[in-house]
Amino acid sequence: MRHGKKFNHLGRTASHREAMLSNMASSLIINKRINTTLAKAKALRKYVEPIITKAKTDTTHSRRIAFSYLQNKESVQELFGPIAEKIANRPGGYVRIIKTGNRLGDSAEMCMMELVDFNELLLGETSAKPKTRRSRRGGSGKAKSTPEASAEATVEAAPAAEAPKEEKAPEAKAEEATAAPEVEEKKEEAPKAEAKAEEPAKEEKKDDASDEEADDKSEKKD
Predict the structure, then answer these.
(1) Which residues pair with 96 in a beta bridge?
(2) pLDDT of residue 206
(3) Beta-bridge mates of residue 112
């Protein structure tokens, strides 16, 4: 029984497996991208990443070790050339595995394996998107007033204040002209009504005064 043995033999002998991984590593280095099964890709990642790390130190010893694994002069030259320049600042994780579904014949899990630094589409998307940070606070959800926001508010308010007053339509002007004399007529009628109201009051006072005089005269006669 093989309890606890996580090493995948890939259904091959040791020599066959070494030769297959060597050829796959050379193909990945030269073409930068290969399509294979998920099990082979995981085994190849453990095989090829230490070899790529060796390319960071361009010495004769490192080249000989890489050649002992790859057995291909072209792949060694490519590894210590453009690949070494691209991975100089990357501390591992040189390979990406992307699942592509199942194979039709035996329904094996397939994937695409590529070098991370040579996918121009993904590198362009990450560089184009700026990093933004959002600060969230507990309690009231009122946003802080920043100087930039206040400056924008003043800029927006300034043109609104400077905007010229709209001229009134001719119909509105005509309505105002007709309403003005009516107001004046009402003002003129108001003092007349007050004068009419005061006249009966004055007459009543005169009547009262005449009655008082008549009473006085009658008292004197008596």
Answers:
(1) 114
(2) 63
(3) 35, 98
The DSSP H or E segment spanning 109 is: strand 109-115
Q: Give me the amino acid identity at 102.
A: N
Residue 17: how many CB atoms within 10 A of its CB? 17
Burial class (CB in 10 A: 0-12, 13-18, 19+), 41: buried
Which residues is 113 bridged to in the sheet? Answer: 34, 97
- How far apart CA 115 and CA 84 sit, in angstroms, is 12
Cβ(93)–Cβ(52) below 8 Å: no
pLDDT in tens, 162-186: 544 555 555 555 555 555 555 555 5
- Asked whether 24 and 43 are in contact (CB, 8 A), the reply is no
10 close to 20: Cβ distance less than 8 angstroms: yes
CA distance 87 to 116: 9
Region for 41 from its dihedrals, namely left if φ exceeds 0, alpha if ψ lies in -120 to 50, beta otherwise: alpha
Residue with tokens 């006669």: 221
| pTM for the predicted model, two decimal places | 0.55
